[in-house]
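re the bet — no i am not wrong, look at it urself. input seq straight from the record:
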Amino acid sequence: MIPKETVEKIISSARVEEVIIDFVNLKKRGVNMIGLCPFHDEKTPSFVVSPTKELYKCFGCGKAGNSVRFLMEHEKYNYPEALKYLAKKYNITIKEEEESDEQKQERDEISSLYIVLVFAQEFYHSYLMESEDGKAVGLAYLKERQIKPDAIRHFQLGFSPSAKDAFSKAALNKGYKEEFLIGAGLSIKTNEGSLIDRFRKRIMFPIHSASGRILGFGGRTLSSATKEAKYINSPETKVYNKSQVLYGLYQAKHSVQKEGKVFLVEGYTDVIALQQAGIENVVASLGTSLTPEHTRLVKRYSNNLNFIFDGDEAGIKASLRGIDIALKAELNVRIIALPEGEDPDSYSHKNDRNELVHFLKKNAIDFILFKSRFLFGDVSTDPIQKAEAVRNIIKSIIQIPNHIHRSSYLKELSSELDIEEEILYRELNNQLRARRTQLSAKKVRKEEEKPAVSGLEDKLLRSTASEQERIIINLLILAGNEEFNEESKCADIILENIMEYDWENPLLQKVFNHYVDFKQQNKIYPGIKHFVQHADQLFQDIASEAAFMDSNISENWSKKTGRIVSSEIDYSKDISSSIKHLEIRKLQSLMKENQKKMKQKDLSQEEAIEYLKIHKKLNERIKELSLRLGIVIY
């Protein structure tokens, strides 16, 4: 367990923008920073990070919190793991009791899978560097492939023993559970019930998340047997999905942000070879074609994606689909075709960094030029084949959401192929109509399959019925300790006036009661930092909303308070106004209840008169409060 004072030191040291910028490409905007949200698909940035408030918030999907919360949401860390990540980042020593094997086994499943994967990486790396077999076979092969010791350490490469159960036995002897070895894709259970290794006598390439967590492995065989697969990758697990991971991104992300672009290659050794040659902003898509999830990952760091294709026609054809996916994600796509017979690995060994940089820059062309030259070089003089090639290129153009960009590419295609723009526009419109029909049918199916509404907590947090309650809580957090008058603080006035209020939103009431506890204990009221650093997710959510209720970010403040926003908000007026609004809402609720009673059958004359009197009094009080607020209640 991490001591409380260490937790406080970690949280106070962590700068939210420094943590998030490792995962999201942020740009300065006023006092804040903004970028594309990593939690949902979006084309216009709505993810705001406030360094001064130590918070992030997405105004698209609503995700919000502090640096610890971000790591828990994005990297699926539990609370202690997120703290340890930050402690390592900010060089803070954590003194805690070493976990026993029993404690490790008691961890939740996801954490246990990560622990087992770290053990596997260390086991394979140690076997490569220290065992006789590893040195004689594994290191010899890497040396032959010109992979240097620095790169071996940098990418944490390893080697798996040839014995069928060497790793599994070592892991079991260390106390790791069989279920987690299988769950992490490292071991396989035979029909006889014994455990064997998935990877045997293979160079091991650890696959990292963007933050450096081990998610799985790729294993390259050294056997010449034709029946044996050249590469075996980890299966899909609860922590590894190959369509959502780019190999080398952990090592490349800072270079990507610095250079402003990403080079995409095919394999593990391509990434390593280019990095060795000094081209560090390079990643690979793990033996699968580019996916929408990959493009979202790229966009967190850069809008510029450069495909590097092997000088092999079959390989290029297999990779063309990725171009359309990248265009749909509104990435700026360039394609680089290597000389025939070359791949990034082989070509980087024949050229120094300056020659590589020059080649990559000189040969990077847009997809129109690339596809037209590639496809038209493959169709001879057959007019039907040529027409099909044009349709293929236009199919890529319609993936681009931006109409101006589409128009620009059509003009370029017309010039490149000497075809009238009008003809190309006609084909583009035909394809667009066909696509709209498909999307419309898909939307209908999606609506039919739509799941039930989300849970109670989400409903309550987003409920418009409790908007005034939400504003009161925001005011408590923002201004609780500010002077309301000479005798009272803002929180005192709020608590005194709505102590008996019947809350509609129990989650907001929980925050209110938190303030009541502070008042009863004569403590200084908690401010926004208290909630930002609180372990309770609800408190972080509420604090995030309050923090961003200012003139720079929220345009709704004036609508909610009925006042024009200035650079300095007069909280005393807002509090008085909100308290009156709350009273009106309470009176309206009482009025509805009273009206229900008035409509009851078999009412006595005396009861009917009494209900009418109550109705009149409630109505008069609502009108009085409305007059003070300068609003009209219908």
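see?? The longest helix spans residues 421-448. told u. also The chain has a mean pLDDT of 84. so pay up
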